[in-house]
Amino acid sequence: MRWFQLTLLGLALAGPARGEDIVDVLRRSQQVRLDAMPLAADGPRADTVRRSFAQLRHALPADVAVELRVVSGGTLAETLHGRIVVANESLADLPEGARLFVLAHELGHVASDHWQQMGAVYRHWVPGEVTPQTTDPVANQLGREASATSHRQEFEADAYALRVLRTLGRPSEDAFAVFRSSTLQQDTATHPGTRKRIASLRAAQAGVISGSDAE
Ligand SMILES: [Zn+2]
Questions:
Q1: Ligand 1 is a single-atom ion; what residues have CB below 5 A from it?
Q2: Nearest to 93 by CA among 80, 102, 85
Q3: Cross-strand pairs, 77
Q4: Ligand 1 centre from 15 Cα, in Å?
Q5: pTM for the full predicted model
Q6: CA 18 to centroid of ligand 1, rounded, Å
Q7: What is the pLDDT of residues 32-77, one digit of tens each?
Q8: For 95, how many CA atoms within 13 A lie in the half-sphere containing its CB?
Q9: Distances in whole angstroms, Cα of residue 196 to Cα of each of 84, 159, 185
């Protein structure tokens, strides 16, 4: 989720409308992002992404609201509004295991209520109306906590995806394939770097294996 950087940027550039609270501002920022992403044309690539998503959807309880939007640009995959998974049609070009991992990671954000958690972090620091007077003094602390929360959520979504892949009978190595095939990323405000994500996945994998041994 790269949205809080964008949101902070949005706050600085556009400014909130009068009376908006911080979650309204976040929501508006996500909608702007969503509207800017071009929908993919119907065809075999979009169908491949939809099929993988449908396969994973069964891992979620039926009452969890989630929607898939296949796009042709703007992102590889991300979750907006806590329930709209945006997936690039280029995911169709990945090996199936890697594609399933990326999509399952996004479903992990949905299933774990990450959007609501992040909203609560923002609201804790900016409880009322959004104005420079209410945001400027807490921007650093809010930024730090939002960043730490986002990193934790990334690790959680990775671990979730690993579990889902195992329930589908996929080898754990599918989970690592994505990181191996892309360039090494450093930490960003929202995402832990590749090495940390692999280390966290390894720990989750060890937990899953020792957990199943104990049964
Ligand atoms: Zn994520």
A1: 154, 157
A2: 102
A3: 87
A4: 27
A5: 0.90
A6: 31
A7: 999 999 999 999 999 999 999 999 998 888 888 999 999 999 899 9
A8: 14
A9: 26, 13, 10
